[in-house]
Amino acid sequence: MPLVDTHVHLNFDTFAGDLDELAQAWRQAGVLALIHSCVDPAEFQAMRAIADRIPELYLSVGLHPLDMDKWADVTAAQIAELAASDSRVVAIGETGLDFFRASDEAVQREAFWHQLTVAHSQGLPVIVHCRAAAQATAAMIQEFQRTVGPVTGVMHCWAGSPEETQWFLDLGFYVSFSGIVTFKNAHQVKASAQLVPSDRLLVETDCPFLSPEPKRKERRNQPAFVYHVAAYLAQLRQVEFESLAQATTRNAATLFNLPELFPLPSDSPSSNSNLLRVPTPAGC
């Protein structure tokens, strides 16, 4: 039952007191690896210190579109330097566009383009935040691919429509679903989750935010709860849980170049396993 939580923020203060216990919980839940997403290059050293304690923790580095007050002429070079400084960096981001109540769209576009350039030059994927900006985000990626060169990545914590989802699939991107997909009224997200091919699907918690059902009342999300996202997606897509877990783990290993996650154990589920059987690991 391998899983990868492809988007966490473990440097938040809410995790400071019990991170070792949380690590034990996610290991018991089958989480083999986590991608620790950076929202500001200034936090990268603290992220590195956490990764020194947790061998299965990988890093990204970038500047979030809601932090454009921190964007400067030197930021892209700083991101590139930090990415090259540590072999645990497997992505650039989180970056992207967030036009919800935004007044700095031009700066966001500039920062996103520069971070796409860093990703392209270093052969890394991008972790893309996209809110109220799907058309603009897709257009920028398409233009970058046409004029500069290849770039791939993941639409993280995806909540777009099926039509928007297809735009990013056509661009070669992966799509990652968080606890939002388990919410009762998230009809658009559920429809998109059914559309994504099994070889482009990822799961995440975006912890400490967005605790999934049945843990939604717990205000602090944690990596072990990615199990519930994967379990819900298996039910929604009408596939075996083990099949979805292995597919999303394989996809994470492919996108983030984590060959150490494979080969998977040879004791894969037998062909007569009960469809939709989802065992609950201890602690979840």
User: How many β strands by DSSP?
Assistant: 8
CATH class wording: Alpha Beta
Strand content: 15-25%
CATH architectural category: Alpha-Beta Barrel
* H/E element order: EHEHEHEHEHEHEHEHH
What gap, in angstroms, lies between the N and C termini?
A: 14 Å
CATH homologous superfamily grouping:
Metal-dependent hydrolases
What is the number of helices?
9
Rounded to an integer in angstroms, the radius of gyration calculated over CA atoms is 18 Å
* Average pLDDT score: 92
SSE-based structural type: alpha/beta
The CATH topology label is TIM Barrel
Shape: globular
- Structurally, the number of domains stands at 1
Q: Which percent range fits the helix content?
A: 25-40%
Runs in which pLDDT lies below 50 for 5 or more consecutive residues are 264-280
Protein name: D-aminoacyl-tRNA deacylase
EC number: 3.1.1.96
Keywords: Hydrolase, Metal-binding
Pfam family, one: TatD_DNase
